[in-house]
Amino acid sequence: MQPKRPLRSGVFLAPYHPDDESPSLQIRRDLELAEHLDRLGFDELWVGEHHSASFESIASPEIFIAAAAERTRNIRLGTGVVSLPYHHPLMVADRIAQLDHQTRGRVMFGVGPGQLPSDAHMLGIEVSEQRRRMNESLDVVIRLLRGEVVTQKSDWFELRDARCQLGCFSHPMVEMAVAAAVSPSGPRAAGKHGIGLLSMAATSDQGFDVLPAHWAVCEDVAAEHGQTVDRRNWRLVVPMHLAETREQARADMGYGLLKLVRYFEKLGGEDLAPIRTLDAAIEQWTERGLTLLGRAIIGTPDDAIARIRALEQQSGGFGTILLLAHDCASPARTAESYELFARYVLPALRDENRGRIESLDWFAEHSRKIVGDLKVAIGSAIEEHEAERRKRGRGVAWGDARDLLVGDDPKKG
After folding, report:
1. What angle do helix axes 130-145 and 185-193 make, rounded to 10 degrees?
2. Which of 352, 378, 393 is the last residue of a domain?
3. CA pair distance 83, 103, nearest whole angstrom
4. Are residues 194 and 283 both part of a single domain?
5. Which of 85, 73, 70, 89 is nearest to 116 (CA)?
6. Cα dist from 191 to 8, 26, 106, 215, 226, whole Å
7. pLDDT tens for residues 163-198?
8. Cβ pair 403, 409 in contact under 8 A
9. Domain region containing 100
10. What is the pTM assigned to this prediction?
11. If residue 267 lies in a helix (H) or strand (E), which one and from where to where?
12. In the chain, how many domains are there?
């Protein structure tokens, strides 16, 4: 039996930035977040694409990734996601291939149909057409990234002898993933092309329930198309804020949670008056879920460990846990939350300290003999020293140091 592969960690940065602060400072703080996560040893950072509705303010994840790559060393950087219906397929493929070179293989290519209907409206795209367009574009983009020459015409794009003049830095091509919420369209696309899956609504009631079905669909469709999929390339997104105590974590939410509630109220045209107090908003988010975000973990590292293990059990296993970035706590407390995750949650989930714990337990079980043997050895060294000193008639006297060690002296037993 092969050992279980360790769970990877990352952050999904939509972002969710309140619209009463400097946008330029928010973007700089996002770049600093990339550096912070890199220092903490997080594996991945995914960055979204949005063009309207105020809070989700990064329009080009590619531009952001290019800057973040120059500030970091190890963390992998993903588009989370490029909304394929908004772009010509050749332009998308060319940008990603270039980023693959600039990052020397650290870029990951996440795709989706586009989340905000207001984005599609501004571009004159019918919401009902977005998933079809995504699938058409995805077919072409993958062929281009594989080095094929493509001639194809649809009702919204045309390619004539199109090719990427830069091949991918990664072999055989850049790693890809497709976004999924609760419908089967994402798993179907991932299975068809044998690429990864980003489950964005994993902690919503409906999204949690369909996790097994999502992977089953992905595997079934992969088999139909002669592809293989690996749970290692399945990523689940979880809203989270951690502190030393649950009380502190809840108090931290006073910084910005109600701003996020206001955003979703305006975004969905829904009256959220019943959750406009901090306590009500926390209860809604943790117990029932906050619109698209699902249920959050607002508590301690132990709370996070328990929830992620429940996700592992429900899903049957996945490769990466992605913490959903938000501004509900202050920048300082948010940075501490990520550090708590890196210090306590991930080592527990990866069972990183098993050897250390077993080593100490073994020592405790055998300490009487081990410490006794050590005392005997030290006592013998002292006696030899004293015998030599007496023989020579000079030298520094050495007291009995055996009592400095814990445990009983076996000679007194």
Report:
1. 20
2. 352
3. 21
4. yes
5. 85
6. 21, 36, 23, 9, 9
7. 999 999 999 999 999 999 888 999 999 999 999 999
8. yes
9. 8-352
10. 0.92
11. helix 257-268
12. 2
